[in-house]
């Protein structure tokens, strides 16, 4: 199984971290949609995609834009994507980033947010959004019966990286 490296900081010298390690999502997938930070689904995946935007990283087949599920989550958490992007870029490691996040989000709302994400299905989307989802996630061609957004993201990752 291909897994995302969890190293979150590299040393720039004795006791001097240089920040989060950039990720190359051409070689491995981001963390799964149901993995959590502070109890929130999609947050580790979003962080991985933001790490892929760092100098030396690469988003590979992934997108990180205003109409994506990561942006949806970030808005629901009451955060600004550019502010989170900057926090990822400046955090020495994921522990510091989690502390930053904990000071800004209502951690008690995680079950509510996760439940909302679990109910997101393609059938409830506008037709143009359904088409966009099908274009962005090739697994929909081979597994048209997938309905839940989180399942689609997970299956698409597995298809892209040949993971069962």
* Content-based structural category: mainly alpha
Low-confidence stretches: 1-17
How are strands sequenced across the largest beta sheet? 1-2
Number of domains as seen in the coordinates? 2
Question: In this structure, how is the largest beta sheet organized?
Answer: 2 strands, antiparallel
Question: How are helices and strands ordered from N to C?
Answer: EEHHHHHHHH
Strand coverage percent: under 5%
CA-atom Rg in angstroms: 16 Å
Tell how many strands the DSSP assignment holds.
2
Range of helix content = 40-55%
Note the total helix count: 8
Overall average residue pLDDT: 88
Distance between the termini: 8 Å
Shape: globular
List keywords for this structure.
two-stranded antiparallel ribbon; 2 domains; 164 residues; mainly alpha; single chain; disordered N terminus; globular; 2 strands
Characterise the protein shown here.
The chain has helices at 43-52, 69-76, 81-90, 94-102, 110-119, 127-136, 139-142, 149-161, and strands at residues 36-37, 40-41. With 164 residues, it is an all-alpha fold. It folds into 2 domains: 18-115, no CATH class; 120-159, no CATH class. The chain has a two-stranded antiparallel ribbon. A hairpin with a 2-residue loop joins strand 1 (36-37) and strand 2 (40-41). Residues 1-17 have low confidence and may be disordered.
Mind sketching the topology for me?
Elements: E1 36-37, E2 40-41, H1 43-52, H2 69-76, H3 81-90, H4 94-102, H5 110-119, H6 127-136, H7 139-142, H8 149-161
Antiparallel strand pairs: 1-2
